[in-house]
Protein 1
Amino acid sequence: MKYLRVLILALITLSVTGCIEIIDDLTLNMDGSGSFKYNINLSSSKVKINSILALDSLDGKRVPSIGEIKQKVSRLNEKLKSESGISNVSLTADYTNYVFKFSCDFASLAELQSAIKTIALSENGGNSIPELDHNWLIFSGSQLNRSVPEIAIKKTKEIKNSDRLMLKEGTYTSITRFETEIEKFDNDKAKLSANKKAIMLRTDPYSLTQNPSLLDNTIYLKKSE
Amino acid sequence: MKIFLTALSLISVIGLNAQQSEDLVPQEAASVFSINNINLLQKVSLDQLVQYEFMEEVQDELFDGSTSGKTIKDSGIDFDQKLNIFIGPADDYFVSGLTFGIANKDQLFEVFDDFEPIESKYAGVEFYSSYFNRIAIKGNVGILYRIIPSGNVVDDLTDSIWYAQGNGYRWDDYYYDDHYYEEEYELEGEFEFIEEMETEENTTTPIDEEDNLPEAGEDPTKKTYYELRDSVEMALQNGFMDAFCDNIFVKGNVLTKTSPKFKKQLNSESEGTFFIDNSKNLKSNNDFDFMKRRYPSFYYRMDELYTGNTMSGEIHINENSIEMELDTEYGEKLGSVYKEMTDSKFDKSVLKYIPEDNQSFFTYNVDLRKAYEEAFRVILPIFSESESRDLSTFGLTLELLDEFINKDALFDSYKGSMFGSFNGIQRVKTTKIIWDYDDETFDYIEKEVEAEEDMPVFVFGFSTDRHDIPEKIMKHLCKNMRQFHNMGEYYIVDNAVMNAAPLYIINKNGLFIYTNDEVLAKLYSDGYGKNAISKKQVKKGMKGGAVYARANLSKAIAELPKEIFNSRENEMIDVFRGKSGTLELSSSKSTKTGTSFNLSYQFEGEYDNSGTYILDLINSMYVISK
């Protein structure tokens, strides 16, 4: 019966396509503080995720249990809370639908990026990551330059080709919100909200792995009167 | 004429006495896989061969470029002799290896180029060594073997010496202090995926990375616990190797001499054979070892029960089929339980729930009641008459349960027979979360909407004569748990399959069925009717023994996920991918001494290299028997 169970799980793992929805949502105040949200929605693939989690290993690698994932999530939460300039950290996980929501407030973009770098280094066993030696969010008061962190580009290159193809059906949405109206922006794929205070860029995760600059944008704010 | 006759008789004597590769298979071997017609392997490259798991003992030697671009034909092996792969546990060690005929020794050592000649204690036998592997050559026959002392034996002896030297608790050693564990914990990462561990070629146990090696002791003349353990392991290994070789080359205690069953099987003219002595594997099990020390008389009665428990089989490669015949043999006591268990009539009611266009299905027909009664008769006295108070108390508990439990209700509810089918991939209803955006502000809210996902459709069921009992349970669950719903003809359990899709339960017509096929539950709860598989298609299963299974490989194999198999397993599966054919497994009725199984793969079209088929099958048996 054990082999039968594994076979059924295996069939499920094969038969369903991966579908992931990601939102990164940055709200920036004029003083450089703000809030950041990062949501991952895997509910379209919950059959697949449940079947993978029920397996001992996949592709020669051990599959962690829900308990282990919960502990990892909790540990990341605690680490972020201890970072300077970061407050109101919240990390909620819905293990029925596999929807994960992270949010925090930050005192400055520099502190937000510093916190993310510290966590990444800590997760890398303290070993240096050259791709972290730059800032991907630069705000001058009237202009915001957004790009994709180089570490994310590096990580996407590590994804196997066959797995990358499965990301085609997902969406990646990047939203940037301001207190004042947006005057103009460089990325012609971006969409301005009706109130002109938010801008959205949307692509699929596969395209992003192929061309990480798809989400690069320079946003110019209207000068306050 | 006289000279001619003398010469002829001399040739006959030499011919009759010439040693064959099977004559060096050691008596310790619990599993032997023989490739009889190794001519089939001539086209197989050595690089391909060494990737099979049964070649793992020599992989380190062969994966060093010495096999590059060569086929087995270039290896110096004699194609007129069998190639025998063996594994087996002895009391204190584990041995594995292979025996083969040698046609050209120079070519052989071009492949095994890491082996160096070593001194031999046996007349007429040459020895070669490479780390822990040895090759012994007698005449034109060779045996390549590796002996690994049992971990328990090494530990016990090391502990004795360690404590006798006046050392403290061995866990105080560097490896076991808290500091070491903390370091490892952080280094590996708490929940990182663990890559498969690779073994070093020059040790029988994996060693850590250089950074993790224990620090040298303060006194360089004194061994740390693990240095001592390595020395003990090495000394034991040398001793066991001597005993192993004495057995073969001095006493002549080889498997052909000690096992008539194995010897008989060697007469087979099939392309490959296998022989597995389950009683040896069972005795080497740690639980059995514990039993032997703690409850000796109980152990001997259990040992008696399992003695003679063997599996032997033949692999035939034909023009359009591959057949594997497997015979299991066992002692009469255990056999009487199997015989009663399989003395069961095929439950025809399952057929109407297997659709004709299924991709694969199985039926399993046993009579648990008869099996229970016979097992109770045979096994209970072993517990009741045991010298151990614990075991005899367990025996009493079994007797009391037998008196108090309503066996009619139990075995009528679950008779033991079951079936299952895989009916391909279908879209099933699930739900998902979406984020709905407001165009004014790009704020978003979460919504749960209906969705569909692809899922393999399966049906499982078991035979029952007491519908009322599962019915009571289902009604109770429907009343008390909100995910259970009584739909009249069937039940629904919300999100029961992978926490996402509903499970349907049908409790009628002598069967208790569970499936994720909505169509079966809603439209065919009394069976598929004319769309069900016919009796004619399952004729073999109905006439045979307990097990029957059939798979349409062109459909089923194509849908096996590559992700869950390693590259070697995928190569084995790839042999069948893209080929149309039918795989059928059937069994005979069990007797008091044995049961036969037949696995048949009927295919259309030609196959490229029959050698890989036989290697794949041998490898599968090896992996299963390990």
Protein 2
Amino acid sequence: MTLILLAEWRRLVRERTSLWVLALLSLALGAAALSSGLDARGWRAQTDQLTSEWSAARARAAEAARAEDARTPRNEDRAVMAAFQFARGEAPPAALPALGGLALGTGGFELLAPTLRATVESRHTDSRKSERFDNPLFSESGTPDLSTCIALLLPLALLGLCGGLVQQAREDGTWRLVVAQCPRPGGVLAAALGWRALAAWGVAALASAIAFAFDPGATAWALAAWLATLAAFVAAWTVLVGFFCLLRVSSSAAVLGALSVWLLSSFAVPVGLAWAADRQARMPSRLEAIVHVRHAQQRAETQMDALVQDWYATHPTDRPATRTSHTWPVTYMPRYLAQDREIRPLMAAFDEARARRYAFVERWSWLSPGLALEMTADRLAGIDAGRYARHVQAVNLHEDAWRDFFVPRIMSYRGMTALDYASVPVFSARTPASQKTWRHAAALAALALVGLVLLVGRRSRRAML
Amino acid sequence: MIAVALHKEWRAIVRDRRFAVLALALGLLLAGVLAVTARQHRLLADEKAQVAAAAREQWDTQGDKHPHRGAHFGHYVFRPESALAGVDPGLDAYVGQALWLEPHRRNMTRFRPAADELPSVRWGGFTPAFVLIALLPLLIIAFGFNAVSQERESGTLRMLHGAGVDARKLLGAKFAALLSVFGAAVPLAMAAGLALAPTGSGADTATLARAAVLALAGVAYCACLAALVLWVSARASRSRQALLVLLGLWVAFVFVVPRMGAAAAQQVVPLPSPEAFWRGIQHDYAQGLGDDGDLATRGRRVDAELLQTYGVSRIEDLPVGAAPLRRLARDAYADRVHALHFGNLWTRYQRQEDVLRLAAALSPAVAMRGLSMKMAGTDLAHQRHFEEAAESYRRGVNAAIDQWDVDNTRGLTSFESRYGGDALWRSVPPFVYVPPGIGFALRHAWVELVVLAAWATAAVALLLGSARRLSP
């Protein structure tokens, strides 16, 4: 077997087509790794910058409050307005912390809004607080994330390396010699496939290591989990291409057959899974939600006076002694609270539906190895739908604390003192990583194993002849 | 002689079992994707119309409010679906579906459908355009990779050579056969897409002209690919080698070059973060542009002009509404600031697209992709056209409400008083968006047209050049 291994290794390194395939794969994945690693670094730096900018804004607000406190008499209206302006637009960034695998791609972070900001107004009706504006052109052409490039290109590279190996030898007339001289010709094919799979995995692993090296927040655990999933992914595709090598067709037909499976599993299966997920957990309509949101806004506005009275009735200690009528922003605070009570569940339904769809598709993702790999990358980066939904829940809790802190100060016309700014609620990101990260690796490994059993079964029927 | 060779090639294609299986598979796939996309497109168009009507009804029946508070209730506007969006939805999934128009500030579109999709959305959408631009070339490769190399392997090329068959005519016939079979797919898809378009989205002259340009470009794209496939097949010593080279080229054209182009564009022309963008607008509004002075200074200047114009000494004594006049001045300034920053942002988008266009020199698929979106009206330029029309409407609506307030009040009024009613809200005309004509699309797509023509010319020239060196 050692001699066969050695011979197949020599064949691989002397075959120009294989070397070209590996070189082009290295080039493409290397560029993607560089791009993804730099993006991940930039993403983390941006999050840190937002936090430091907020600290500076808080210090400025505290300084202004100190100056206001020193004035006699204290101007209540100005104090309220300062507190309101800070409470509506200067909340600390509530960022979904990226995990150790962010270097695999920031594409998921680009599509969602992982950094939210609490407010005493309604963040759901303000597009400035949630929308990102990366160039949609690039989303459409496909992100250059490393995980995406690997999911799409690695199977094609394996196809170029392993596709039609047996048929080619048969067309050249060398396969009969192999079968005649070798007691176990399957070993020759296994060695050829094994070396090629190892080479392809090595290129992808090296590119991944480069991307992780650029990301200051990368972790060894994430890299290990990724490399293991990558190994299972490569094994699944190698077995599949190997299966096509044993079919009694021409070498070109074997390549085209494997290519068709790649197309189906990469493009048709995800569409089918999305359709099935729609049946399981239909995504509510964003457009329809607009009508409900406006309805909630209108109702809260028409009930504004009553809501203000109700608020003071339930918070008697915050009722100002000297004022009988109120104006904006005081009159708006109970209104925002009321409309958000209606809007929040509406918006949460989107995150919940997305998480349910994601969970459903995860169960079936073994049908599309590329999708399974992409979902693993999402989990390792920390942007899977389940974790995002939990993050939004945490932000809602933080927003409640933010409002509990500011609304009484605004409604009572106390405003903020310099000392108060030291104790404003700060979002503490405690969103744990989603479990089951190994599920995809296990599913892909199982897929490879099943394929291997089929392959061995086919070999035992002497189909190789 | 070329007619005989062409006839032989056609018969060979028709008798090839691969043709029946793959053409049927691709045909069914294309029909299925067209039907599904057209249905989604129709449902979305209906939903947009319903929601727009409901949102307008909510606007009209707000009841009694302060006019400015009514204005803050705002309008939601939706970009109408273009008739060819069923063929190429382009950026539709990646730009927001709705745009909220409110006083004082310009917003970004909201609710990107892609945000709710599975991670596979990052591989690109599975649409009719994807089938035509990415999968159709694969079919051409599947048929053409051994068109010449197999003749060489089986020895028929030597026989043809010996019989004195002109290599140019032989390759020309193979090229014409491939092109006539596959070039028809794009015009057929266009016709099906138009037939399935929602009623009212219009198969008007402009749409037909756009579809015709797209169909012609599709034929040029197929010509380019057919010539490249035959060129590789003529140069390769073996069919498998030709197939692997062509698959490598396909991967590069369809997947690698667009992604690398996108990565390069993002590095070369970075975008501001959302926080920096909005902060910039806030800063310029509060501090002023150039020597305009800060908000307070500008406010004092406006007050002074008002007092002088109306010949009074106190704002409270103005014979017209003072607060809406002040608001009009402030908003006019805010509009200037927004126009500046949004203009810069769109310029950056445009420059990023220009960098991506450079990648079209390395991939005809990139040129075809850009052209397809532009003709379907689902690209960045059309989105900008819509957003600017909406912005113009936003300014008009808010100015009209403020002007009503100026005309119907005196001096300073309380923000808490409710003197605007349904008659005022109903007097605001609805937003009617007229999409730009084909001239607009062609102006934005000329680079792609030139690049595609250059690719087709170069590929055919390569093929003809290889005929001279075609060895048996």
